[in-house]
Design brief:
heterodimer; A: about 200 residues; mainly alpha; two-stranded antiparallel ribbon; 8 helices; 2 strands; B: about 260 residues; 6 helices; about 90% helix
Chain lengths: ~200, ~260
Amino acid sequence: MSEIVNNLLKICEIYEKAKFKELSGVNIPEVIDELEREVAELGLEKIYGVDIGKVYTTFKKEVKLPITFVGFGGEVIGRVNVELDVPIRLSKCLSRLYRMLARYDKVLSSVKDVLTTLVEAKLVSEDKVKPVLDKLNEDIEKCKKLLKVTSRIMYSEEAIARDILDIYRRVKRGFLPNGEILKKLEKYFKEIIEN
Amino acid sequence: MSVKLPKQIEDKLRNIDKLLSSIGDKLTTIDNMFFKLRQAYITSNLSEFENVLFDLSYALLDVSREVHNLIREFDTLSKDVYGKVARKELLNVEKLKTLTSKLGELRWEKLSKVLSTLGSIADRGREVEENFNNRLHKACKRYFESMDVKRVVNYYDLSSDVENACKFVEYLYDKLSKLNDEVSHIGETFLYLEDEVNILQQKLSLIIDAIELQRRRRELLGEVAKLLSEGRVKEALKLVDEYISIEHELEEIRRGKRL
């Protein structure tokens, strides 16, 4: 399995354990570099002019999501900046990557189908097309692996974001009493930080 | 029942019969050629496929020419028959029955055989076209219609080979479609001919009916006169009823209500 798949799997694992803090332990630009290399290896960015630079820039930006805790009387009882910046930005990058890979997959499969059909009909020389077909098969396999891992990360990230958002909404509407809010949040973030 | 028909009509019938036999034989050959075409496609021998397509287009052109002559012969036969009936040169029941029976033979023996061969040809042609479209033609269409696919093929430096192959496929598919259209066109012409033979037969049957009704009407007049002279009025009146009913039937035939 290629390096990029391993790295993406690593991110996936981190997400699944909800280690937000540790996400910074993964060198995102490094992963992106590898991703860039991987896509370059597919030889597709030359064909489509995929702007890997844009994906990279998006990863580097930091956006913090402030959560404000409001008591029953509407008074602000505290503010926490949860570092959801990376997951939120990453989600955009991942969906972009996913769409891009899905398009590659479709086009590569079409090219493979056209070439295979022409070879079967003995209209183009098998010797000439075989190396291309081998490369296409390899690339299609890579695309499929990347698609699978990307969708797994997107799914985990989405699930965690939903959890946080749920607590945030309950707090904002005052459905959680002060003591409970603090206890629940303390437990939640403790888990996130410690695990 | 074999009565000699007017020479002009006999000649036309013979010509039509000959043309139908010749077309039938040619269509059997064409059917075999379509079989070869199918085989060439299955074995992916596209140069053989192209050769058979080429031969087929000539063979179908030849048949089309004969079909054209056949239709012309039949049109003149119909005109001759109607002309002779109108000029009262062909009002003999036995002759008309012979002509109807000969038309029936043409229709049931020759025409239906030709139509069945055409059906088989059309089935084979459609099957090849469908398979060709599902496999080769769709793949080539994808190449021509998708810029992304074209770019990737170009990237792998295969564009000239693929483009030439796809153009060849387009050319073969176009030729095959035109061939199948021609088969459908010939089929439609034969169905038209079948209808025309059927109509001529029906009209002849009506003429025969009319002649026989007129003969019976003449007989009835004599019988009624005889019965009246013998004072058998009741019996004479019954025959008058029959006379009136014959008059009605003849009127219907005259007005074309029975066709």
